[in-house]
Amino acid sequence: MKRIVIGDPHGRWEFVKKIYDKEQPDEVIILGDYFDSFNIDAYAQRECYDNIINLRNEHLEKSKGDFIMLIGNHDFHYMDENFGRCSGWNPLTCSQASYPLCRDLDNKVLQFVYVDYKNFTIYSHAGVSQKWFNEWCKDMELGDINSLKTKAFCFTFKEGGDYYGSSQYNSPLWIRPEGLKKSPFTDYNGGVWNQIFGHTEPDTPIHWQENFDDYTADFYGIDCIYKHYLIEELDDKGKLLERKLGNVE
Q: I need a labelling partner for 60 at 20 to 30 A (CA). Which of 107, 109, 134, 247 fits?
C-alpha cells in the first residue's frame, strides 16, 4: 500500500494533481495551508481548495485508503480571528476561504493532526512539541488533539518565542523546527515519535533523526517550494516498510 504526504499547496492545484496522478496512492495526507499566495488570486485559491475536496471525495469512493486533510496556519487565521493574521491574509481571500474551511472542520473533513499509531508517527502542519502537549492536553491521548478548543492552537511568545515561532510552546500550526528539536513529543515510556510536517519552507527537505538503543525516530519537513513530497510504502497490515522522498520534476 502506498501513502503520499503532500506539503503546503497555497492555491497550487496543479502541484497536488500532478503528484496524485503520478503516484496513484492508496492513502493521502495533505499538511494544510490551502490558502494565501502572493501570485495566485483568491478565486483561484478557492478553486484549488474545492478541487482538492472533490479529489478527496473521488478517492474515498474508489479506494480503501483514507484522504487526510490537515489545517495550516494560513487556513486557521480565516477560521478563528483570535489566531491573528499571518502573511498573505487579505479580506478577499477571507471571503472565499472562511466558510468552506469552517464547514469542513465542523464536518470533520479537516483536522489538526493525524496519528498513525501503528508506526508511531504524527502528521501535523508544523509539529507537536511535548511542551505544548503538556500545557493543553493533560490526561489526553494524541488523537484527542482534534477535540481541543481552537484557543489551544493560537500563536504564543512564551519561553523565548518570536514572530518566527521558535517557542517550544507553539502549537502544531506554528512551531518551527528549532523549537520541535528542543521538545519532541514522547510517549509515557519515553519513546520519541516520528513526525512529518510542512510549514517551514526550505530549499530542500528538512530531515533529522533522534537515535535510541533500539530504534531511530525520523523528522521530515516537506514544505519545499512545491517540488518534494513523501512516499510511504506500507504492508497489508499498515506497517511501514519504507519512507522516501518523491520529486514532482
A: 247
Asked if 65 and 40 count as a contact pair (C-beta separation under 8 A), the reply is no
**In terms of residue numbers, what domain contains 47?**
2-247
Asked if 125 and 136 touch (Cβ cutoff 8 Å), the reply is no
Q: How, if at all, do strands 121-124 and 113-116 pair?
A: antiparallel
Tell if the pTM clears 0.85, that is, is over it.
Answer: yes
Question: Does position 130 have pLDDT exceeding 90, yes or no?
Answer: yes
What are the respective helix, strand and coil percentages of the chain, to the nearest 5? 35, 25, 45
Mean pLDDT over all residues of the chain?
A: 91
Alpha carbon distance 130, 122 (integer Å): 12
50: how many CB neighbours lie within 10 A of its CB? 14
Question: Tell me, what amino acid is at 162?
Answer: D
Closest residue by Cα to residue 121 from 174, 197, 199, 200: 197
* CATH code of the domain containing 72: 3.60.21.10
Indicate the helix (H) or strand (E) that contains 91.
helix 91-106
Per-residue b or e along 221-238, where b marks 16 or more CB atoms closer than 10 Å to that residue's CB: bbbbebbbbbbbebeeee
